Amino acid sequence: MSDRHANYIPKHIRREETIMEMPSPEYNEDSEHDFKSFDDEVPLQNSRFSFVSGEDEHELPNRTLVKRNGAATVNVLEDRYAQGTMELIKALQDNEPEEPFWEDLRRLDLQQKDLPTLNRLDELCYRIEALDVSNNHIAQLAGAPTTLRRLNISNNCLNKLKVDDNEVDSLDGVLELDGLLKLSAKGNKIKRVDFQGAYLERLTELDLSDNEIHSVRSLDTLKSLETLNLDENELSTFSFGRVSKVKQLGLNRNRLEKLDVSSFPRLETLAADSNNLSSLSGIAKLKHLRVLSARDQHPASGIFDTTSFLANADISELYLSSNTIPTLSFPEDNAGNTTPLLNLQRLELASCGLRTLPDKFGAVAPNIRSLNLNFNALKELRPLLNSKKLARLDLAGNRLSRLRRNVLVLAKVPSLRAVDLRNNAFNVGFYPPPSADRRVSRAGLCISIDDDNVSLVSGEHSLLEQEAEQQRQPQHLVLPSADDDRDRAYLARLDADTALRRRVYEMLVAGACGGVRALDGLALRRDEAMRRDEVWERLVGLGVVVRKKSRP
Questions:
Q1: Cβ neighbour number for residue 113 with a 10 Å cutoff
Q2: Of 415, 391, 416, 523, nearest to 462 (Cα)?
Q3: Which of 178, 291, 305, 426 gives a 20 to 30 Å CA spacing to 146?
Q4: Rounded to an integer, what is the distance from CA 507 to the centroid of its chain?
Q5: Pairing state of beta strands 215-217 and 522-523?
Q6: How many CB atoms neighbour CB 194 within 10 A?
Q7: 315 vs 339: CA distance, rounded Å
């Protein structure tokens, strides 16, 4: 026994007395266990008894010591037991008076013990597999042993329950917990859910993601539900009566072929990426809808009806990347007039096969602040002319070839602060290939766009801001911010012709777009680009750069 535990034995035990030791039975970690009900009598296992005189007390095992003193039994606990709550220890003493080794318990019945918590139970009884703590005052499961396979916690005060990443295949055991506010059972084996007759009237958050659910019934009985996450399941249909309070709905990575969300009148955020949807029904009636994401759909017909996803004029963020949209069409009213999208501020249409934008794009959506058109086949930017509030524009990997013409278009968007034109015909070879490590660089760049302003921060203090901005969109839909040091080293090795073309490119953007502060993932080096050297004088002579007249 360690010196720490030897020194801990109180003085009133260190006398020439007889102390009883009950060693634990053999324990096989790989053995199978037959679970009986809590009412079944569990036979006592054979125990061996040995008697140790007081002079050999340092050989006592590192366990609970039991001293007989007349009719009284005094439990002397190690310091790790003393850290547990007094209520739990008292309940264990009352319930298991003949068991000196609590860590060997496999089944434990602590019902009606006035317990407020299970804190430290995982240290005192770390092999428990069947636990009954019904009819107590427990408000959370912190301290429940990880070895549990069966748990009865009915008639308690639970308001949060988290049973993630287990082998749970049914919610039947929690449907009567009427005090629950939050329930998370993601990463389990649940196949169907039926809330008919459930008492979860106070439940506000429900996370059943990453299961095998193919059927959800009676969701409308959850009267207080505000957040529902059913990502990564097997749902092919999703239809209910009126679910009045749900604001956040996650249906990513299911098998949905049809979706009608008109039964969610308070819906604010809908995420339905990676399904089989060709259209979306019911969103025109959702007056509170602000964020809609329907990336990467695989409809059986092969046709993606863009107008059905644009049918709500109140949406402020729309993410439709990785869908087949060769031509973007806006919805029209009964008179044939295009419906303006005045609230739309973020639009993501990356990797959609887009060849052209509608001529009235800027007029229909004049308040867009962030537009991602990466990895398409666009050749012309004129439809962006009326985008008066556009601050961030991603156009990497398109078919843009006429540099001066496209820069003139960008010059007429005075609100523009960041533009990414990498991997287009006019800047091939200008930059080193993106690093295989997509983590944000300490010399990287962050463009932050909120409702009121646009800010650009560089250096290591912006790491968290960069990560947050890049996590808003999947990595395969945006190019990472470039590393300034790595770019300068690459530029120093460029051949003279390519270096000159890059200088011209940067001069055109810097000269025409006075508000741009970030170009192609780097802070725009305006002073370096516009320095008056031989190259600058030559370009002035060619009419590429206009010399500003000096004031008299």
A1: 18
A2: 523
A3: 178
A4: 41
A5: unpaired
A6: 16
A7: 13
Query: How far is residue 80's CA from residue 408's CA, in Å, rounded to a whole number?
Result: 73
Instruction: Give dist(CA 182, CA 227) in Å, integer.
Output: 9
Distance CA 442, CA 465 (A): 12
Distance CA 395, CA 351 (A): 11
Pairing of the two strands 215-217 and 205-207: unpaired
Q: What tens digit of pLDDT does each residue of 457-506 get?
A: 544 444 445 444 544 678 889 999 999 999 999 999 999 999 999 999 99
**Cβ(213)–Cβ(236) below 8 Å:** no
- Tell if the pTM clears 0.85, that is, is over it: no
* Crossing angle for the helix pair 496-512 and 403-411, to the nearest 10 degrees: 20
Residue 284 in contact with residue 308, Cβ under 8 Å? no
303 phi, psi to nearest 5 deg: -105, 130
- Residues paired with residue 291 on neighbouring β-strands, in sequence order: 269, 317
Residues whose CB falls within 8 Å of the CB of residue 75, separated by 6 or more in sequence, listed in order: 64, 66, 93
Q: Cα 153 to chain center, whole Å?
A: 29
Name the residue ranges covered by the structural domains of the chain.
Answer: 1-26+44-76
Cα(391)–Cα(367) distance, integer angstroms: 10
